[in-house]
Amino acid sequence: MKTTMSTLPGKAAIAGIGATEFSKRSGRTELRLAVEAVRAALADAGLTASDVDGLVTFTMDTNSEIAVARELGIPRLSFFSRINFGGGAACATVQQAAMAVATGIAEVVVCYRAFNERSGHRFGRVSAAAAAAPTSNGIDASWSYPMGLGTPAADVAMFARRYQHVYGATSEDFGRVAVAGRRHAAVNPNAWFHGKPITLEDHQTSRWVVEPLHLLDCCQESDGGVALVVTSAQRAKDLPHPPAVIAAAAQGSGPDQFVMTSYYRDDLLGLPEMRIVGDQLWAQSGLRPGDIATAVLYDHFTPFVLVQLEELGFCGPGEAREFIAGGAIEMGGRLPVNTHGGQLGEAYIHGMNGIAEAVRQIRGTSCNQVGGPVLVTAGTGVPTSGLIVTGPGID
Amino acid sequence: MNSIEAEAGRLKALGESEPRLARDPVNEPMINNWVEALGDRNPAYPKFAPPAMVQVWTMYGLNGVRDADDPLGAMSKVLDAAGFTSVVATNCEQTYHRYLRPGEQLAVTTRLSDVVGPKRTALGEGWFVTTVSTWYVDDEPVAEMMFRVLKFRPPEPSGSVLRPLVNQDTEFFWQGTAKRELRIQRCPDCRRLRHPPGPFCPVCGSATPEYVLASGRGSIFSYVVHHHPPIPGKRLPVVIALVELEEGVRMLGELPDVPPDEVWIGQEVVVDWSRVDSELTLPVWRARHD
Fold it and tell me: Residues of the signal sequence (chain B) (predicted)?
């Protein structure tokens, strides 16, 4: 691996988090959700709109930076940026913000993501627009959509079947991820599935969506918005909450990379793009997997949680099922995962709600409190990103 | 009792159809062709006929017309009229009482044994139709067959198949499918095969890719059974496979004829073609039984 000394670690911190309620029908526009989330995050950070000079979001977000800035009355923006590849953008929005802050390009950057993903455009459906996009992605999609493979669940199921075949993982092994997520969500009042844990039997008897994935292997679809305020670690020290210092932030794309259909690599067992992210996170932070107290692993579908544990080095290839079966990802385990309930249990806000949970872990305010350092990942099966956040004591 | 059950009862009561004579007596040339095609080197043939050939002797031939009193034909018409227009054979059990010898003249009769339904199946709602055929030499029964089909109502696909986006880098592939050719991109310099294709060779940088014709044979590398949500132009559930071609590249495609619980990783498949319309033909995959 190419190792370049990064000057990013420790320079920036997440000083504010904000969110709307998580629902199935927000009853208001995506722009309103975005602005509500940003306002909440600024209030949490003890800052105002006029402090903000940067905005970052996903290319998929429908709310333009200028529209958000107008509604908030932000008088002056000197930095705005967007990240591609769906949920893979989540942690990279924070990386963009941190790089802008670390280089002095901006002082206060807000990352946001807001959508009516349940009551409006649903990502779980077959997207004729994605299949016909007049871009290289549209050409890529022509090798899957016309062939009948056209939903994210189906894309992951193809991978999951091969993973089962080679490593002997079972549907129950996937199900334990959902059971853990829902158990964590059950005590989180902001979670859609607050008070609604599930059993492995519930998972096994839930209907097929795309075999080998049951309904309860798939995250929810949600309406809502999340925003994160990034500023310099120095400035964050003077703000109301303990800063969540960005100890590492990375993006990754692997060999022969496709969006959700990287089926043409030698094997179909790993997420090399996530390994590329992980390698950078360890190099930047100087931490090792054994140092991580809790992780927020992107859980749009359960199988990739197993693969992430392997690619990030928490266990060996093919060993995640034993790691999970031993209770490691639950409270009290070696590595509690998705303590907010994840996208399976809390809400699907394209990974951004998981970053907010990492901040709560650093602040000590999670419903399932563990502490730091916290590793967070973004969308899987796509070019992706990751973060490690720590308390202010670790440089 | 509904009209399907009433008609089934009437056809069952008719009992055996009139004996239908085989077109030719049991004969050595046909036996030789059969054992050669199947690679059966048993030295007892062609002095005797392989028992499993029994159905062969009474086949209708290319231009044959089913007998009016054939109960499977009659029952199928009833079910077709009720909308159960698709058919798949589900069971076939044959019993042989003795070997047949060249020169023997066979006749076959068929009776309707059972019509059970409507049943919800993975293919759609349908009726299982079971017939029993008996082969005779003169008055001696020499073999029997229980044969069961599922006559089902094909679920309606929603919308039309999503069409591929085609550009100058990829048009060779789709021009190939229109001619029922499976084309794989090949680098003229380093000979590397590649799918999906692109404008350059990612290994050696060559900018003038060409293509080769695939044999069309491969095996299933992975697969899914899609139940939900709807896919434009597809009847659900549908099996979609990632096929590894024997040339080494992988390709996605539907497996239209294999029931979901009979698909497995490593299963050998061969390409076939699904013509969507005059401008689009898609490769699909069928199980290979050779």
Answer: none
Question: What's the pLDDT at B289?
Answer: 83
Tell whether B196 and B226 lie within a shared domain: yes
Cβ of A268 within 8 Å of Cβ of B167? The answer is: no
Share of chain A above pLDDT 90, in %: 96
Cβ separation B225–A146 shorter than 8 A: no
Domain end (from B123, B153, B183): B153
One domain, residues B257 and B128: no
Please tell me whether residues B57 and B185 are part of one structural domain. Answer: no
For residue B211, pLDDT over 70 is answered with yes
Arithmetic mean of pLDDT, A125-151: 92
CA dihedral B120, B226, A164, A311 (to 10 degrees): -150
Which class in CATH covers the domain with range A12-120+219-389?
alpha beta
Q: Count how many domains chain B has.
A: 2
Q: Is B25 domain-assigned?
A: yes
Quick check: A212 pLDDT over 90?
Answer: yes
Q: Report the complex ipTM.
A: 0.96
**Residue-wise pLDDT tens digits, A283-293:** 999 999 999 99
Q: What pLDDT score does B158 carry?
A: 66
Q: Which residue range(s) make up the domain with B267?
A: 171-287
* Contact map slice: B 184-243 vs A, CB within 8 A: 195-196, 202, 221-232, 234, 237-238, 240, 242
Q: Out of B120, B153, B186, pick the residue that ends a domain.
A: B153
Assess if residue B181 is contained within a domain.
yes
Flag whether residue B161 sits within 8 Å of chain A, measured between CB atoms. yes
Which residues of chain A are within 8 Å of residue B253 when distances are taken between CB atoms?
Answer: 147-148
B183 lies within 8 A of chain A by CB: no
Q: Collect all residues of chain A within an 8 Å Cβ-Cβ radius of residue B250.
A: 263-264
Catalytic residue annotation of A: 298, 348
- The whole-number pLDDT of residue A2 equals 53
pLDDT at B280 over 70: yes
Output the domain CATH number for residue B16. 3.10.129.10
A393 pLDDT more than 90: no
In a domain, B230, yes or no: yes
Contact status of B168 with chain A (Cβ, < 8 Å): no
Same domain, B282 and B190: yes
B276 & B184 share domain:
yes
Residue B207: inside a domain, yes or no? Answer: yes
CB of B162 less than 8 A from some CB of A:
yes
- Do B145 and B103 lie in one domain? The reply is yes
Minimal-distance CA residue of chain B relative to A165: B265
- Chain A CB contacts of B222 below 8 Å: 158-159, 161-162, 165, 263, 268
Give residue A345's pLDDT. Answer: 98
CA of A258: which chain B residue's CA is closest?
A: B196
Domain ranges of chain A: 12-120+219-389
Q: What is the pLDDT of residues B188-210, one digit of tens each?
A: 999 999 999 999 999 999 999 99
- Helix/strand/coil (H, E, C) string of chain B? CCHHHHHHHHHHHCCCCCCEECCCCCCHHHHHHHHHHHCCCCCCCCCCECHHHHHHHCCCCCCCCCCCCCHHHHHHHHHHHCCCCEEEEEEEEEEECCCECCCCCEEEEEEEEEEEEEEEECCEEEEEEEEEEEEEECCEEEEEEEEEEEEECCCCCCCCCCCCCCCCCCHHHHHHHHCCCCEEEECCCCCCEECCCCCCCCCCCCCCCEEEECCCEEEEEEEEEECCCCCCCCCCCEEEEEEEECCCCEEEEECCCCCHHHCCCCCEEEEEEEEEECCEEEEEEEECCC
User: What are the residues of chain A with a beta carbon less than 8 Å away from any beta carbon of chain B?
Assistant: 124-126, 128, 131-134, 138-151, 154, 157-159, 161-162, 165, 207-212, 256, 261, 263-264, 268
Interval B53-102: pLDDT, tens: 999 999 988 888 888 889 999 999 999 998 898 999 889 999 999 999 99
- pLDDT value for B83: 87
Question: CA-nearest residue of chain A to B159?
Answer: A128
